[in-house]
Specification:
This protein is α+β, with helices and mostly antiparallel strands. The protein is built from three helices and 14 strands. About 13% of the residues have low confidence.
Length: 217
Amino acid sequence: MDVSPPSSTIEGYVVHKTNNALRMSFQDGPGDPCAVGVQGAGDGKGKKLAILFGFANGGSGNHVLTWSDDTVLRIASKEREPTVLTLGDGSALATIERGDESTARMPDGSPLLHFGPDPVEDRTPDLFRMVVTGAEGGAVGTLDVIRKVPGWTLSRAVAGAADLAIWWDRAGQPLPVPILGTRLATVRPLTPVERDVLVCACVDLAIGLRPYIASMN
């Protein structure tokens, strides 16, 4: 079974597409993105028009993640209901039950991953930070939700600040990005299912704007 490296970082950067939809580009190293998430790509015409006219700057909807090998995953970010993750063919991948802490569960209901607040500092002006643990309670890594440019490392902030915050529409007005992105840092290998669920969770957090810990409410 393929797994991720023993320790790795996957960063997702949010910008606006020209149709106003949020686009999240994931990098696990130099080169082309390893995956791309798009706001509302699985929504109907009405919701897509709301995005186009700037009435849906992130939030609930049917978002789509596409890996570089063209594997498609779907993220149904819902209000006051669990987030539902499915494969491109519609079969179940996982659900994420949100609350003061959150849990990703397999289709049979068994726990896969748990998202809890960082015990030292889970909220700063620049980011939210969660600790991710596995089904048996062992450490998987940390997940940061970046709120402002200083939440990135200095090198990333300097190199990419011009691209992170806004897309200029035809009237020349800035449309702000609610969340700048996510940073997942793992401390052990991930199974393919864990990796899929964690990157989908990043889309749910940054594009779906779903809170996973109490301090995000």
